[in-house]
Amino acid sequence: MTLITSERLAQVPSATDLYNIDHMLSDEERMVRDTVRKFVRERVLPGIDQHFEAGTFPRELIPEVAEMGLLGMHLDGYDCAGLNAVCYGLACQELEAGDSGLRSFVSVQGSLAMFPIYAFGSEEQKQRWLPRMARGEVIGCFGLTEPDFGSEAAGMRTTARRDGNHYILNGTKMWITNGGIADLAVVWARTDDGIRGFLVERGTPGFTTSDIHQKLSLRASVTSELHFEDCRIPVENMLPNVKGMRGPLSCLNEARYGIAWGVLGAARTCFETALDYAKTRIQFKKPIASFQLVQRKLALIATELVKAQLLALQLGRLKDEDLLHPVQISVAKSNNCREALNIAREARTILGANGITLEYPIIRHMNNLESVFTYEGTDDIHTLIIGQAITGLDAFA
């Protein structure tokens, strides 16, 4: 029998790691996490609030992100880092601790633009695009959502009509992260042979983009519309190895996986900010952290953060063992986005009026999380996916 001594009981766990999850990580996983955390602390945080306020994306960071091997880091070969799923998740977590916009950029590049080429492209397409995308020389985006079709992506109206050695693409895609800065768009369109994916290069006649402005969320991120008007795409630019919604949905699952991790970084930053503030904010001659109601808020935040971290870690272990089912991704994406948003809102209340200014990061993360809660499948859609899995009944129709 192992006795718990008073000395061992005296070792209080970290406020942001109550379950010693750090101990469950490999040396390589901790190294990736710590490297990205240092980068965010030194290069992202000093200016991200200004980018958020100005509504600009920190493009100057792209070469550094690429140099760290974060673009397509979970893919093997083609100059990609080939790291495991947990490493990828931890990197997303640390990037989003800086800002959701930066994590979104990395997620779109690796999971939504590089992954479909890696999984469904020809060898020529892989050799042509993936190494340059891994080095950040080519920026990609993912065109699925349309003005009239978000959750019902299969209802898309964008079409690609075969014309000799080309396809003629017509339609509009909306809410496209990286769209205005992308050199290559992975676009899904309806053909006579079903839904297919196409690689559309910037500069192709008939392909234009327009950025979406007046956003109050994800302001440090480029969000755009993609417009296609009689845009001629060579046949060899079609992804040859997938047909139907399986293609775009598998890409979305890759992105949702990263989101389930990423939002924990935003939540942790909000928690750390509220905790530090509560310890130093003096009211009624003592720090507000000494009040029962504030401690209750902090305790609930810390508990939900631990639960979400454990959910993400198990998700990563399942993915690394090729045991992951899409329903499990929906559970983690839905739960972690919901709880991260709740954590941000609760943390904001601890700061009172100070919590609504960009002097502190909470309101920035809270606004960003409103978008992350919605994109790559709304909470409603993920709830129905989970409901269908546990009841065997389809509630979509």
From TrEMBL:
Q: Tell me which Gene Ontology terms the entry assigns under biological process.
A: fatty acid beta-oxidation using acyl-CoA dehydrogenase; fatty-acyl-CoA biosynthetic process
Keywords of the record, alphabetical order, are: FAD, Flavoprotein, Oxidoreductase, Transit peptide
- Acyl-CoA dehydrogenase/oxidase N-terminal domain location is 26-137
State the source organism's domain of life: Bacteria
Domain Acyl-CoA dehydrogenase/oxidase C-terminal per the UniProt entry, residue ranges: 243-390
Please give one Gene Ontology molecular function term for this protein: fatty-acyl-CoA binding
The residue ranges of the Acyl-CoA oxidase/dehydrogenase middle domain are 141-231
Give the required cofactors.
FAD
Pfam families listed in its UniProt record:
Acyl-CoA_dh_1 (PF00441), Acyl-CoA_dh_M (PF02770), Acyl-CoA_dh_N (PF02771)
Q: Which family does it belong to?
A: Belongs to the acyl-CoA dehydrogenase family.
Name it.
Glutaryl-CoA dehydrogenase
| Annotated organism of origin | Thermosporothrix hazakensis
Q: What is the lineage of its organism?
A: Bacteria, Bacillati, Chloroflexota, Ktedonobacteria, Ktedonobacterales
